[in-house]
Every structure is written in C-alpha cells, then in structure tokens.
C-alpha cells in the first residue's frame, strides 16, 4: 500500500519554465559514498528518464544496495534491477551471503533467494514441479523469452495466469498470447464442468419430481430414460447427488413394479371377466337355440349334461378371487337354472318317450294324457318334441270341448274358470307363489259350486293342483342345491369369529337369498338353516344389546350437549365475548357430538335438528367477529405494503413492529383467509426489513470505503512527514484533509488513535512553522538599528525602553536567561511588571503581543551598531526559546 500511495505523492517535478541544472551523469557518482549512494537510489526511485534510471542501476555494484529498491519501483525498473542482481550474483557469489547477513528483513531475505537464483534458471530447469510462485515470477521477470514462455506454460492456477497476463500485457506479446489461450481453456473447462454439474442437478431434480408425480402416463419409459441418462452423467455427480438420485430412482422403480403388478391384476381380472361373459353368452346362445327348435333326433342328454358341467367349472374358475356383481351372478344363476330345468325335463321325457310314440296313445283316456303331460312337465318357452306337441293338441281339444259344455254357466263358474286360467298361466310361467294363491282362490270358488257344476271342473282343478305340486317339487329340486349351499354357508358363518356388525350383515344376506329361493318344502332343511342362523346370530345378540344401551347413553349425552349449548346461547353477552373461547366451545361441541355415536336414528332426528339450530346461533356471531377481524388484518396488510416505500426507513421499521403487535392482538378469523393474509403481511414485513438489511450493507460498504480512504489519507500524511515535505502549506493542507475526511459511523480504536496522533503531529508542525515565521519576522525587526518613522508609535510606552531594557524584557517574556551583568536589571523589571500587573485592571496581554510591542519599540529608535550586534544574539536566543517552548 505504501508503494502504491507513493506513486501519487512523489516529489513534484521541477518547473520546466525555470532553468534547472541537469543532474550529473550517474557514472560520475561513487556508490561507496553514502551521499552518492542516496543520490543514485533517489534517481532510481523518482527520475522519469529511463536512461538515467538504468545508468543509476548499472552504477550500483552490490546486491545489498539493490534489494531495498526492488519493492519501491515500477515493474519495468524491477526487471532491470533483477538483471543487475543476476549479473552481480554470477560475477560475485559472495555478495549473496553478504546481503543475507546485512539485510535481516524477511521480505528482503525472500527477495535475495528469488532474485539471486533467477539468473541460474534455464528452460530445462523449469518444470511442473517448480514452486508455483517461482513459476509466476519467472514468467514475469525471466531473462529470456524461452524462460518466460516455459514458466507461463507450466502455470495452471487461474489467479496466477491472470497475474501473468496483467503483467505481460503490452510488454511480452508471446507470454500474453500463451496465457490468454490457457485462461480461455481454463474458462472453457470450468464452463464445461458447470454444464456437467447443471446436467446432473437437472437430472436429480427431474428424478425427484418423477418420483412424486401423479401423472402415470409413460411412467416406465420415463424411468428407463432417466436410468440411461444417469449412466452417462453419474461420473460427474457428487456423493450427495448420487444418493439423491438413487433414492428417487428407488421410489420410481417401486412404483414401476406396482404399476406392473396392477397391470397383471387388471389383465387377470379382464380375462376372468371375459370368461364369465363367455359363459353367459354360451348359456344364452344354447338356451336360445333350444327355445327356437329341437334337434331332429331329439335333445341329447349327454351333450347337455357335459355343457352344464363345463360351464359350471368355467364359472367357478372365473369367479375365484374376483369381484362379481350381483346382477352378473343372478344372470348366471337364472341361465344355469333354466338349463338344469331343461335337462330334467328331457330326462322325464325320455322316460315316457316310448309310450308317447306308441299308436295306443291316440285312444288313451284324457286322464292318462294329463298324467303324461304332468309327468313330463316340459318347461315353458322351449321348443317341444313332436310327441309332446301331439299330446298338447289332444289335451287342448279336450279342454276346448269342456269349455264349450260350461259356456252357459253362471258368473260364479266364469270366475272359477278365470281363476283356473290364471292359475294355469301362472303355472306355465313357473310362478310358484302366485300359483299357490290362485290355487287357494280356485279351491274356494270350487267348493261353492254344486256337485253337478263342480264335477265338471274337478279334474282341471285337480290337474292344476298336481301341476302346482309338481312345480313345488321341481322348485325344491332346482333350489335344493342352493339351499343346501346356504345351509353350509350359514353353518360355516356360525363357527367364524367376526366383527358382530359384519357377521349380522352377512346373516341378513344369507336369509335374503333363502327367501328369494321361495323357502323349502323340506322342513328338515329349513330347520337346519334356521338352527344355523340362530347359532350364527347368538354371539351378535349381546353385542347389539350392548350397542342398544350405548345408543341410549349417547342419546343422553347429546341431550346434555344441547342443554349446555342452549344455556350458553341464552346467557351469552355477544357484545363483550371472548371469541377464541366461543370458537373453542363451538369446536368442542361438534367434536363431542360426533363422538357420541352410534345413536338411534329416529330418536336422534329431533335432537339433531335442535343441535344444528343451536350451532347456527353460535356460528352467526362467530362469523361476524371473523369478518370484522379479517377486515382489520386486511387494513394492517395494506398499511404494511405502503411502508415498503416509506421514508425514513427507521420510521417504517418502527411502524412495522407496531403493526406486528396489532396483528397479534386481533382475534379469530377463518384459518384459510388468515393464512393468506399472514403470508401477504409477512412478505411486506420481510420487504421492509430487507430494505434495512440492504441499507446496512450499503452503510457497511460506505464505512469500509471511508476506512480505506482514511487509511490512505493517514498513510499519505505519514509518508509526507517522513520524506521531509514539511512546508507549512503542505502540513496545513494535509491537516485540513484529515479534518474533512469522511469518517465511518464506528471508527476502530486503532484508527481513531492513529487519526488523533496524526492530527496532533500535523498541528504541531503547523504551529511550529507559524512560530518560526513569527520569530523570523521579529528577528528582521530587531536587525535594524536606524529609527523607522513608518512604525505606529501611538500605543507604545513612554518613555521608550532602552535597547538593553528591551533585551532583558524579551528574555523575561520567553524565559531565557540573562547575562550576569544584567541580573539586577532583570530583577528590577520583574518587580515592576509584578507591580504594574497588580495595579492594572485591564485585560492581560499575551506574550506575542508584548514581544511585538518590544519589536516596534526597537524599530522606532536609533541603536548603535555595536550595541545592536551585542544584543541581537541574546534576542535571537530568547526568540528561539519561545519558538521551542
């Protein structure tokens, strides 16, 4: 820093308009002479003529003379000094050791090592193993271009290359171009490394986002792409980045496995669904073809039986571990039931087929024909074999004749016939429950007829009764497997330990399925199902009894909640209410109401209505208070946002803190709205305090700049004093500068003391210079011995003191000693001064004023030359003592 400042505060150049003597050539000076050595060193440091500087450097013949100059000169002069030191080190190696002994400063010792060894280096001795600082110095100060280029080529550090480039600019084109290319390569490598790191960071970020995303489209493909990109970039990743990416990738792979498992499950479910659909379609197709026509050779019992078994197995496999809708299951059961009924009808038909095909069936009695038809009981809706068609036509003709015979019967007979017709139709449709009711009604109507009319309808009624019985038997035959299955399911359920609610629900489902099957004519089967149901429900009984008691207790709890809420609403003073407490009451009431569950629905209906009404009475003032508080907080947010540009900043910060306290005192608001307003308020406050931080940073920068400026001024002042430029004007200007320099808000103690000391030193120098000027003025006045008529005499004492009196008084004023012969006179004057001082009431005069008066007294009188010469030295000594006091 000192060398840098010296560049700006060097001695002024001599005025070119004045004639100046050109310095004598350096070769005429002897560096072994201290005076000539100082002259040579000054020319090297300060002279602007390169020829003079170089000649002065060549004249110095010892290393210890050159080393102290090296830090204080420019780079061009340093190069010349370095060459001269190398020459001296080669020519006189002993000078190196002498310089080491005489120059003990560590910096100078380091320069000796560097500069004295610099000349011994060659291109072959420069390698990558050379100390980096040495390489930089060789690249800047090397003697040959080859040395400088070799050294610069081995420097790899960016800061070192920048230092070499700055030094070589305009001085060494080859080194400058080489370093420029190396710096460009370094920056390109840094940029490439930054791009690699950015690519790794982007890849890690994408992987983490992909691990969290809900968008599953092309998820697996994206994971594979991430893996492929990672293989190319993982070598550039840090340990932390590798951990982050692999963690995200692990999550992605788990999600991929889950997706694959879901896809397989979905595919299996879809296959099972297709199998079930195929089973239903095949059954529908088969039953549809059987409804349209019957094979020429008659129905094939073996084929139908094989179809039934294969489709039952197919359905069983397609429903295992799969969710099947009730509609789909019902369709299957209906279709399979129709197929089973058809197979059973075929079996019955084949049993009487020979009799139906015999010629004797044409002459058979109608009762036998009815018996054959009832035995076969061909299901309605399916195409019938030809033998059954013939039988049906014959039975139809008999019924038609019978209808014609009773066409003229009364209304009662018509009603019976209508019932029988409906019964017959119901039987054809296999509607067992409806057929049972119609049969009872027909039996009642039949009993009301006389014997003659009743006998005509007895057979039909009997036939329909048999058909109803057959339907019941067939229904029992068709539903028995399912009923047995239900019995087994209920018995299995009775042995299971399940949650009572779920168990009771399952019992209801099984009972509903039993009812849908129309019950069972087999009482043993029904008793089995009922016993299993009772056994299954027995564990649930205690649970539901306890649950009933719990419902009653919860109902009472809810009544108590309503009573407490009603009492609170009735006694509440909404004008002065603790709204946070009200909000807590509202929340606790809802929570306790929810916890008081289960309850009986009907008994709770009125309570629920009352509770909702009470809550509304509490919520209305709560909502009003929330809106009022939200308005207050919105106003605070607006005030805070206005403070973002408010000046002064200290006032804005004070107001912001006050607003924060106001915010804390405001009551309840809606949570979501409060969060939004708080975020806006927090952002505004952060902005205000960010301005404070920015202002502090600016102040810190200003303080730093002020400290640097003060340091520079102090260093300049110290340098000026040390170099001897102590003219009164320069000292006064520097003192003024130090007084006007901008000071930081907090001045370090060391700088504060240094500034105080430097100001005192400058002030002392200014005062000393001022005193010296005054002394010179008085000496000039005392140097005259002829009276000066131009001096003002009006305020001078009368009579005028003699020259000897003036000299003694001057010695008294300055504290100087008087000669032995004037001691009596000195004592006399001191007594007189004491007496005059005690008698005078006027303001005291200063020493300077009294000396000035004595000087004018000297000037206005004639003094002999001998007397003036005798007294002048005494007065000069006295004045010098006053100056130094």
Question: How would you characterize the overall build of this protein?
Answer:
This protein has 885 residues and is an all-alpha fold. Helix content is 76%, strand content 0%. The chain has 32 helices and no strands. The protein has helices at residues 2-8, 34-46, 50-59, 63-66, 75-91, 94-102, 106-118, 132-141, 145-154, 158-168, 173-212, 219-233, 239-292, 301-319, 326-357, 366-376, 386-405, 411-428, 432-447, 451-495, 500-516, 523-571, 579-595, 601-642, 649-665, 671-722, 728-740, 749-782, 803-814, 823-839, 847-859, 865-884. Helix 14 runs antiparallel to helix 15 (326-357) and helix 26 (671-722) runs parallel beside helix 28 (749-782). The longest helix has 54 residues, at 239-292. 18% of the residues are buried.
List the helices and strands and how they pair.
Elements: H1 2-8, H2 34-46, H3 50-59, H4 63-66, H5 75-91, H6 94-102, H7 106-118, H8 132-141, H9 145-154, H10 158-168, H11 173-212, H12 219-233, H13 239-292, H14 301-319, H15 326-357, H16 366-376, H17 386-405, H18 411-428, H19 432-447, H20 451-495, H21 500-516, H22 523-571, H23 579-595, H24 601-642, H25 649-665, H26 671-722, H27 728-740, H28 749-782, H29 803-814, H30 823-839, H31 847-859, H32 865-884
Helix pairs in contact: 2-3, 3-5, 5-7, 8-9, 8-10, 9-11, 10-11, 11-12, 11-13, 12-13, 13-14, 13-15, 14-15, 16-17, 16-20, 18-19, 18-20, 19-20, 20-21, 20-22, 21-22, 22-24, 23-24, 24-25, 24-26, 25-26, 26-27, 26-28, 27-28, 28-32, 29-30, 29-31, 29-32
């Amino acid at each position: 820093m000192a060398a840098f400042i010296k560049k700006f505060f060097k001695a002024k150049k001599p005025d070119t308009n004045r004639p100046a003597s050109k310095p004598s050539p350096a070769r005429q000076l002897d560096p072994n002479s201290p005076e000539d050595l100082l002259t040579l060193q000054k020319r090297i440091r300060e002279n602007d003529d390169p020829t003079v500087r170089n000649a002065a450097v060549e004249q110095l013949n010892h290393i210890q003379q050159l080393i102290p100059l090296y830090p204080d000169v420019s780079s061009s002069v340093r190069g010349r000094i370095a060459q001269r030191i190398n020459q001296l080190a080669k020519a006189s190696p002993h000078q190196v050791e002498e310089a080491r002994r005489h120059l003990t400063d560590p910096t100078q010792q380091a320069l000796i090592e560097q500069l004295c060894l610099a000349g011994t280096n060659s291109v072959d001795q420069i390698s990558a193993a050379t100390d980096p600082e040495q390489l930089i110095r060789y690249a800047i100060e090397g003697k040959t271009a080859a040395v400088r280029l070799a050294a610069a080529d081995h420097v790899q550090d960016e800061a070192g290359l920048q230092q070499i480039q700055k030094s070589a600019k305009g001085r060494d084109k080859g080194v400058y171009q080489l370093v420029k290319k190396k710096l460009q390569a370094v920056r390109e490598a840094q940029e490439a490394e930054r791009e690699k790191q950015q690519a790794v960071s982007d890849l890690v970020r994408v992987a983490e986002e992909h691990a969290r995303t809900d968008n599953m489209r092309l998820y697996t493909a994206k994971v594979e792409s991430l893996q492929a990109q990672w293989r190319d970039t993982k070598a550039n990743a840090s340990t932390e980045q590798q951990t982050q990416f692999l963690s995200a990738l692990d999550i992605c792979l788990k999600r991929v496995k889950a997706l694959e498992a879901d896809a397989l499950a979905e595919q299996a479910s879809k296959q099972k669904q297709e199998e079930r659909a195929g089973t239903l379609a095949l059954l529908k197709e088969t039953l549809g073809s059987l409804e349209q026509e019957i094979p020429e050779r008659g129905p094939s019992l073996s084929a139908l039986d094989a179809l039934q078994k294969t489709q039952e197995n197919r359905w069983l496999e397609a429903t295992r571990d799969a969710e099947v809708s009730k509609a789909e299951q019902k369709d299957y059961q209906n279709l399979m039931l129709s197929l089973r009924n058809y197979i059973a009808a075929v079996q019955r038909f084949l049993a009487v087929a020979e009799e139906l095909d015999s010629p004797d069936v044409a002459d058979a009695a109608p009762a036998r024909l009815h018996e054959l038809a009832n035995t076969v009981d061909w299901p309605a809706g399916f195409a019938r074999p030809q033998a059954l068609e013939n039988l049906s036509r014959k039975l139809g003709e008999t019924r038609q004749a019978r209808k014609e015979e009773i066409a003229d019967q009364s209304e009662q007979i018509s009603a019976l016939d209508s019932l029988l017709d409906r019964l017959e139709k119901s039987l054809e449709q296999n509607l067992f429950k409806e057929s049972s009711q119609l049969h009872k009604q027909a039996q009642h109507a039949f009993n009301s007829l006389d014997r003659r009319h009743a006998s005509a309808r007895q057979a039909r009624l009997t036939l329909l009764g048999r058909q109803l019985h057959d339907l019941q038997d067939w229904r029992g035959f068709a539903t028995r497997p399912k009923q047995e299955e239900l019995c087994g399911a209920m018995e299995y359920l009775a042995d299971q330990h399940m949650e009572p609610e779920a168990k009771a629900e399952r019992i209801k489902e099984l009972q509903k399925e039993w009812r849908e099957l129309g019950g069972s004519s087999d009482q043993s089967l029904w008793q089995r199902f009922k016993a299993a149901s009772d056994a299954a429900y027995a564990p649930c009984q205690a649970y539901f009894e306890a649950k009933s008691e719990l419902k009653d207790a919860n109902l009472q709890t809810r009544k108590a909640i309503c009573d407490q809420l009603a009492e609170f609403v009735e006694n509440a003073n909404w004008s002065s209410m603790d709204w946070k407490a009200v909000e807590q009451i509202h929340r606790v009431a809802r929570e306790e109401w929810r916890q008081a569950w289960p309850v009986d629905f009907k008994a709770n209906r009125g309570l629920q209505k009352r509770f909702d009404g009470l809550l509304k009475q509490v919520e209305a003032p709560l909502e009003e208070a929330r809106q009022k508080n939200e308005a207050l907080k919105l106003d605070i947010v607006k005030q805070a946002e206005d403070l973002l540009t408010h000046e002064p900043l200290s006032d804005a910060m004070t107001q912001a803190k006050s607003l924060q306290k106001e915010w804390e005192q405001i009551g309840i608001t809606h949570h979501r709205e409060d969060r939004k307003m708080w975020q806006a308020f927090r952002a505004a406050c952060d902005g205000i305090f960010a301005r404070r931080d920015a202002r502090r940073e600016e102040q810190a920068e200003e303080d730093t700049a002020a400290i640097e400026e003060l340091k520079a001024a102090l260093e300049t002042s110290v340098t000026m004093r040390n170099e001897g430029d102590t003219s009164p004007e320069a000292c006064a200007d520097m003192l003024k500068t130090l007084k006007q320099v901008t000071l930081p808000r907090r001045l370090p103690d060391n700088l504060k003391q240094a500034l105080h000391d430097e100001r005192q030193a400058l002030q002392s120098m200014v005062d000393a210079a001022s005193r010296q000027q005054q002394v010179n003025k008085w000496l000039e006045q005392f140097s005259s011995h002829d009276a000066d008529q131009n001096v003002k005499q009006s305020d001078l004492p009368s009579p005028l003191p003699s020259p000897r009196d003036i000299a003694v008084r001057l010695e008294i004023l300055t504290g100087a000693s008087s000669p032995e012969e004037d001691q009596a006179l000195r004592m006399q004057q001191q007594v007189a001064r004491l007496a005059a001082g005690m008698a005078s009431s006027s303001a005291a005069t200063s020493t300077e004023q009294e000396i000035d008066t004595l000087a004018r007294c000297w000037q206005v009188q004639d003094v002999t030359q001998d007397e003036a010469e005798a007294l002048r030295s005494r007065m000069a000594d006295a004045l010098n003592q006053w100056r130094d006091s």
